Each structure stands twice: as C-alpha cells, then as structure tokens.
C-alpha cells in the first residue's frame, strides 16, 4: 500500500543519503535510493557546508524516491549548524561547519560572562564550543547577523526550500543552547546572552508534525507529486538514531556511533544536577518528549581522519582492522572525549603528541595506532554509560550500538568487554530508520513507540556481542590508567 511508503533524507558529515521505507504494522523494509558525498568547503573565512550541493543531492535523491510515491518526506542532519535568511527569504552566506575554529575563544568568554552553572541550569547542555549559542556570539555585530531576519537549522532550511514554510523542529532546537531545558521554549535570557533578537528563531514544531507540501519548483525538480508532505521528524540525526534503538527492555543504554559516538540514556526528564554539569552531560530532546541524557565522544572521526591523513579510503579499513586485532592490547590509550581532536587535520600526529605528553609509547605502526583508538573509544563508551547511570540513578542490562560503528566488530566486542554488558549492534542505518518510523507513527498514531522498537528488532535484527570471559580486570586496569570509570 503506497500509503505506507515514506522517504528519509539523512545528511551525515561525510555523505548524504535518501532512503525509502515501507512501514506497516508488521513490516519495515528500507531501500537506499541515492547516496552523495558531503564535502565541506574551505573558504577564506573558514570551514563551511556546501549547502547548495547538499540541496542538489536531496533533489536527485527525491527524484529516485519519487518512483515509490512516498506519502511524506522527512529530513535529518547533524545538529547546531544554521543558515541565516534575510526578510525576502534569501540565504545570507554559506552555513559554517561546526568544526570551524571561530568559536574557540568566544565560547569560554560567553560561559564566563553568563556563568557555567547558570547556563547549565537554563539549557541543560554539555559544553561544546560549537553550540549554536556560541556560533551566534562569534558572529555578533557582523553584517550578516544584523541583516538576518530568520535563523534556520540545516534540516529546517532544506524543508523551507522545499515547502516555503520556516520553522524550528524541537529535537534539533534543543541542541542550540538557546532552548530552555524546563519550558522547552526559546529562552529570552539565553537569546540575550547570545546577543540575538527572539524574532530570529522560528516557531517550534515537533516530530510528526506536517511542515507543508512541495512548492512548484522543488516538485518539478524532484519529480514528486506536489501534494507530498514534508514532515517534521526528529531532525537531529542523533534523536532519530535513538528513536530507532531496537530495545526490548526499558533498561538499555545506547551508543549512536558514526562520525561521533553519542553515548547515554533515554530518560523521562532532564538531569541538571551540579554533578551532571561537572561531568559535562547533555540533556537534548528525543521523540515523545523524552530526554537524551548523553555525552559526545569523538567517535569514528578519529579513524576517518587517520585514514585521510594516510591517503587511504574506507576500502583500506578491513586490512587495518585485522592489523589492529593482532597488535598488542592496551599498549597506549587516549581520552577519546578530548576536544583537542575536534578540528580536522594531522590526526595521527596529534594522537602521537597526546601519547608523548602522557609518557606513553607511540604506536609502532598503523594497526597499533588503530588499536589505541578503538580501545580508547570502548573505554570512553564504558565511562560515559557508567557515569550516565550513576548521575541518573538508573541501571542498564544491555547497550545498543547503532550507526556505522555497528559494522566494526572489534569496536562492538571491545565495548561489550569494557562495559561488562552485552552489546546489541545495529541497525547501521539507524538514523534513516528513526526518520522513517517517526513518519510512520504520525500516519498510524495507534502504534506505540515501544511496539515500533520491537518491530525494528525483528526486521533489522541486531547482532549480539557478549562480554568475553576473563577480560574484565584488564579493562578495569586500562580505565584506571586514564582515570575513567
Ligand atoms: C552527530 C551530531 C551530534 C552533534 C554533532 C554536531 O551527527 O549530530 O549529535 O553533537 O553531530 O552537530
């Protein structure tokens, strides 16, 4: 039945894809119809996204999806980045990339001015130098910001180009640092701290809401029926990924593992204690009014950047992973949450410097370096999930690792070993799955989210990794070396 077909536009830091999903009461089948590269642009004034290129990729993907006559289209991407529009709706400059360094000095100054405790009490977010609030503070006084009428986060900007309707989907809005963690509305105090007028921010909408239907031009360019709805989904990719966690119990933790590892818990309410602030945990919004209580870990970015530095692509990974598996265990370890790894470039050298500083031997070869990175990531997953449990008073019995990292057998097994808990790996395309099920849920409101999670478990069955016997004490010792939980 065509009424059960939905299209997901899912933009990641290195590629975008369009996935068509057929979702019914006992069916969930996904087909990737288009994939395109996402290459950031280095311009004189910093690192930007090629938003025009991304929009072309979206149109081409929707053309491929049009054959399936989807009932609606949903868009998700990474968080925090935005475009500014003037009063006529024209885009003012290319959106900055969150890995641009222009907020490095400004972000601590804003925290200093507002007060770290006050900021956390208001927005409940972990400190990340690139949060929208800091990006706007860095842009303060610029002609672009002064000429701006509307700010749209990237999925909202693409939805605006498709429909002509501006808005602000709330899961993504919750990553800006400008949303009040208690009221879930734009915070006048935080907007003032960022130095921007409240009128800049769009009207909030929630996953499942219809944003609009297609304007004539994008309908023509995509081949989709002009009556096709553009639906708000959990437009923050991590919120979509968490929505797709195939949990069968409430006692689960998750790691959404791609370019980033986002490790944490799904809670009914935020935890904004002083201890949560000191541990730098974030309270971002999920579907159904849930809170994603988590922390950002550098993730596979560390691996991707090593490969790029070595002039290799993903096809080299299986060979390198085999070398990593054969390299000596726990020879060297890094803090995989360290913001020093945020900017692009020179990753193997930066890891080497970190190891020298901490009096550790530098890896003998690429396999050993990869082993250092993957063991360090597993330790960061363990530390973050254990702390999340302590801070929230919750307990977990299984960890779901979703996203591209679910393909990495070493990382899955080592995460299970480090945590001393089973890891259920997959779906790899969790973000697209979450995007689709939110649209399906809006079309069939009778189905509960827990039921959909079980449907994901049966149709996209995860692979289960049990912690290997006899490994616990080695992981405890390794965690202690880094001062981790
Ligand atoms: C993951 C992600 C993270 C966010 C980072 C920057 O793709 O969305 O959740 O902290 O990218 O936006």
Automatic annotation (TrEMBL):
Residues 254-443 form the Carbohydrate kinase FGGY C-terminal domain. InterPro entries: ATPase_NBD (IPR043129), FGGY_C (IPR018485), FGGY_Carb_Kinase (IPR050406), FGGY_N (IPR018484), Rhamnulokinase (IPR013449). Its EC number is 2.7.1.5. Keywords: ATP-binding, Carbohydrate metabolism, Kinase, Nucleotide-binding, Rhamnose metabolism, Transferase, Xylose metabolism. One of its GO terms (molecular function) is ATP binding. One of its GO terms (biological process) is D-xylose metabolic process. Residues 8-242 form the Carbohydrate kinase FGGY N-terminal domain. Pfam families: FGGY_C (PF02782), FGGY_N (PF00370). Belongs to the FGGY kinase family. This is Rhamnulokinase. The gene is rhaB.
